[in-house]
Amino acid sequence: MPEQLTVAHISDTHLGYRSLSRQDPKTGVNQREVDVYRAFAQAMDAIQLASPEIILITGDLFDKKIPSIWSLGRAFRVLRVVQEKRKGKPLILLGGNHDTPRMRESGAVFPLFEEIPGVKAVYGKPDIVPLPELNTAVTCVPAAGAIRVAEENYQLEPLEGFRYNILAVHGMLQGMTAYEYSPFFLPRSRVIDERWDYIALGDYHDFHKVSHNAAYAGATEFTTTNIWNERREKGWLWVVIEKGKVPLIRHRTVPTRRVTQLSDLDADQCQSVDEVVERVLADAEQENVSEALVRVRIASVPYSERARVQKAILQSLADAFHVHVEFRVAQRVTVSAVDASTGAGNVQSIEERWRLFVEERKQELPGDVSAAEVVERGLQALSAVSEGG
Ligand SMILES: [Mn+2]
């Protein structure tokens, strides 16, 4: 029996994710779908070389319930090759909120993956995967099961009779800021417990250590509806568990497409619209925008000038993968934003105004609809609109 247990924890790879209209010249497949696949393949390659006892994939392997044949085939092949090389050592695959069908009849793709030696898929209710050869029990809570844990007081307990107990969960813990609409949050007290040797979390797209024994692995590429707010380092976790010690948790990065946010600009601070363009280009020169996803936010450019500014920037940054120029209305102080007690006129973003709007009218909502949910859905829609511009 090994003195240490090594685990590779990977999550939210979102294979099949598509964005923008560029295609890979070789395959004709959406270029971002190819990027996302490459990040996954490189991560799995690195994981195989690290040679862990257990691989945990904590949900959202796929971006959709029915992934494209291209991504499905590629994922299957990567996992089959990895499992052959590691001679069928355990690989546990959890269903996430993106890749689990709501109804059983719609046929999840997960059973297919159990044809690969050593792969165990858990995508419905919570389930325990015993690994007697490692004296380990892995308690699995896929996205569908996380709802039960939250709503039905489902108690998660380490199993007696095993040296190591691991908990794997796909769900957003209370207090985490979701990038996307999150239907519910898991109470921390239901999940975080020091009796687990390691708690592997999925759903949040950045590496985040929640406690000494719990961590979100984060995604392997940029696939949320607000990629600009995601942290730049993507990857997987190398975890070493030893009885009586705090688990060692190391984030191993994988190469991704570069995401670059240029400095925000206000045209009112510039002499002319031409100076706005000059400043953007000077800033882009400092950053490496070649083949990158680039965003720049510019306030106070008159409507009549926007097309010209956008064209000038796009032409000059032609070697970027995609440039998103986001024009913003000059931020004004609204009456409701003037705080009467301090007299301070806080400048409000559209997101803040939306929150306030819902807050003021929450009495009018039907009983079964929470104000928080309405706020989140609105924020998601706003973020989707700014993405698509
Ligand atoms: Mn996800």
Shape: globular
- Major sheet: size, sense and barrel closure? 6 strands, mixed
Number of domains: 2
Provide the succession of SSEs.
EHEHEHEEEHEHEEEEEEEHEHEHH
Number of distinct beta strands? 16
CATH architecture label of the largest domain: 4-Layer Sandwich
In helices, the fraction of residues equals 25-40%
Present as ligands are: manganese (II) ion
Strand fraction band? 15-25%
Q: What's the pLDDT, averaged over the residues?
A: 89
Text of the CATH class of the largest domain: Alpha Beta
Q: What is the number of helical segments per DSSP (H or I, 4+ residues)?
A: 9
Unreliable stretches: 337-345
CATH level 4 superfamily of the largest domain: Metallo-dependent phosphatases
Notable features of this structure?
389 residues, 9 helices, 2 domains, Purple Acid Phosphatase, chain A, domain 2, six-stranded mixed β-sheet, binds manganese (II) ion
How would you explain this protein's 3D organization?
There is one protein chain. The protein has about 400 residues and is of the alpha/beta class. It folds into two domains: about 5-255, Metallo-dependent phosphatases (Purple Acid Phosphatase, chain A, domain 2), CATH 3.60.21; about 260-389, no CATH class. It is about 30% helix and about 20% strand. The chain has helices at about 30-50, 70-85, 110-115, 145-150, 190, 275-285, 305-315, 350-360, 370-389; strands at about 5-10, 55, 90-95, 120, 125-130, 135-140, 165-170, 200, 210, 215, 235-240, 250-255, 260, 265, 295-300, 320-330. The strands form three sheets. Strands 4-3-2-1-11-12 form a six-stranded mixed sheet. A six-stranded mixed sheet has the order 5-6-7-8-10-9. Manganese (II) ion (MN) binds near residues 60 and 98. Manganese (II) ion binds near residues 60, 96 and 98.
